[in-house]
Amino acid sequence: MKLAVIRAIDHLLGRMFCFLLIPLVRGLGKVLRRDHTISNANVRTIAVAKYYGLGSITHAMPLLKALKETFPQAKVVFVTRKGNERLLSVIPWVDETLVIDDRSLAGLVSTNLSLLRAFRRLRIDLFFDLELFSAYGALVSLFSMARNRFGFFCSKDTDYKAWIYTHLMFYNFQMPVRLCYLQLGRMAGVPASASTDLLPYDIPDAVCASAVRRLAAVAPDKGNGFLAVNVNASELSYARRWPLDSFAEVVRHFASLQYHILLVGAPSEHGYVQGVIDRVADPAITPYIHNVAGLFPLDEFLAMLPHCEALLTNDTGIMNFGYAVNLPTVGIYGPNTPIRYHVDNGLHTAAYYETYCSPCIHHLDDSPCGDIADCIHSITVEEVIGHLRDTLCKTERLPSSARSIPAGTVEPFGILRTR
After folding, report:
1. Cα(326)–Cα(322) distance, rounded to whole angstroms?
2. Nearest C-alpha neighbor of 405 from the set 178, 150, 154, 168
3. How far is 9 from 404, CA to CA, in rounded Å?
4. Quick one: which H or E segment has residue 46?
5. Nearest one of 45, 168, 74, 178 to 419, comparing CA atoms
6. Is the dihedral of CA 236, 240, 245, 248 positive or negative?
7. Distance between CA atoms of 17 and 21, rounded to whole angstroms?
């Protein structure tokens, strides 16, 4: 199903069901008087849910690692969409992945019934819902029957969450997203000292070897090295796409310096990516420009990235993959600010032109300007070439980090409710 349809169903039906269930939830809470204490002895299964955003799932890795270290005997289960399953397979702190298939109504119904059966089998103790506005996510949390359900409150549009979650945390859009996720975990006992670093994926050796062979087939002669370029953005917001004409100018510049340009993306993005090559149209340098959208399976793509010299990308999932593997990355931001996802460790660069209406992406379903965003069109070709040139000179790969922000030494700041 299309994202717009899913959003409409969630807004209209999902919220209605949430409000209808509030009296039942409150009544059962008083009758059952469940034990909400949290300790190593009584936490056996932990569920973490994030349905949209490959980048957000990547930024959940510090939380997943911290939960494993805080509750070493517990099983960690991740609930997500089927399209994210391959990414979860290379995150080392996930023991089991439960997926819902939202590509069709029949698939959605079938996989949700399977999800409910899995919840009965697992007997979940802690459920962390990392979605912000999703009523569906709140309902899944509720029907998990977890003893403790953790969620975010970020606006009056999410009032229904106050009665569905046992633990509610204020979500701050001015904080790095991975710090917000860790702050949610702190209500369950994750220590304030937990690392905010993004860590590499756990990719099998056979997958790494296959990625190297596939890369060698693309360009046997490495030239001056590989530059990965991502011109795409997901349907969550196409306004995040920097213009193809601008990308073509940057690609032309670095291909003329004999860098092999790998234009990356999903199979469905192959045609859009080809637009860059069509715009360059220079026989002298087109042998250095390769449309590899859809060529690498996701796990092989993650294994391929460290073999590149740098990554140039719109603000989308691939940008966060670059951060996680510590590949020097230039991220182009517009409808979103660098505050939430950019990893400022001296290795990566954020290209951002602040305008009055940025950020809009997490506050409005549709950008005020449609898909023609002044914020991102104001970033010049010369600026991006300069950022990428400077990034190529950064050879020291530092650990990724977030700003040092007081989060509360004993009780975490931002708690709205605990039960």
Report:
1. 6
2. 178
3. 39
4. strand 45-49
5. 168
6. negative
7. 6
Q: What's the pLDDT at 80?
A: 97
Give the tokens for residue 53. 């955003």
Residue 409 pLDDT: 67
Write down the pLDDT at residue 10: 72
Note whether 230 and 312 are within 8 A (CB).
yes
Distance (Å, whole) CA 267 – CA 297: 10
What is the reported pLDDT for 375? 83
Identity of the residue numbered 85:
E
Task: Note whether 231 and 276 are within 8 A (CB).
Answer: yes
Kindly list the averaged pLDDT for each block of 10 residues, start to end, along the chain of length 419. 69 72 66 78 96 93 96 97 93 95 88 94 96 88 92 76 85 92 94 88 95 94 93 84 95 96 95 95 92 95 96 95 94 90 89 84 72 82 94 67 64 78
Query: Taking a C-beta distance cutoff of 8 angstroms, is the pair 261, 218 a contact?
Result: no
185 neighbors 66 (Cβ within 8 angstroms): yes
* Category of 346 on φ-ψ map: left (φ > 0), alpha (ψ -120 to 50) or beta: left
pLDDT at site 31: 64
Query: How confident is the model at residue 308, as a pLDDT?
Result: 96
Bridge partners for 228 per DSSP: 262, 311
Q: Is the peptide bond before 359 cis (omega within 30 degrees of 0)?
A: yes
CA distance 123 to 325: 34
Exposure of 394 by Cβ count < 10 A (0-12 exposed, 13-18 middle, 19+ buried)?
middle
| Nearest one of 48, 127, 68, 167 to 411, comparing CA atoms | 167
Which DSSP string do the residues of 157-203 spell out, in sequence order?
Answer: GGGGGGGT-SEEEE--TTS-HHHHHHHHHHTTT--TT----------
Give the burial class of 29: count Cβ atoms within 10 A of its Cβ; 0-12 exposed, 13-18 middle, 19 or more buried.
middle
Type of residue numbered 207? V
CA-to-CA distance for 274 and 270, rounded, in angstroms? 6
Name the token pair of 143.
């029907």
Token pair recorded at residue 250 = 């940057």
User: Can you spell out the DSSP letters for 99-139?
Assistant: EE--SSHHHHHHHHHHHHHHHHHH--SEEEE--SS-HHHHH
Residues 79, 115 contacting (CB under 8 angstroms)? yes
Strand 415-417 with 167-170, pairing: antiparallel
Strands 96-100 and 126-129: unpaired
Distance CA 342, CA 113 (A): 37
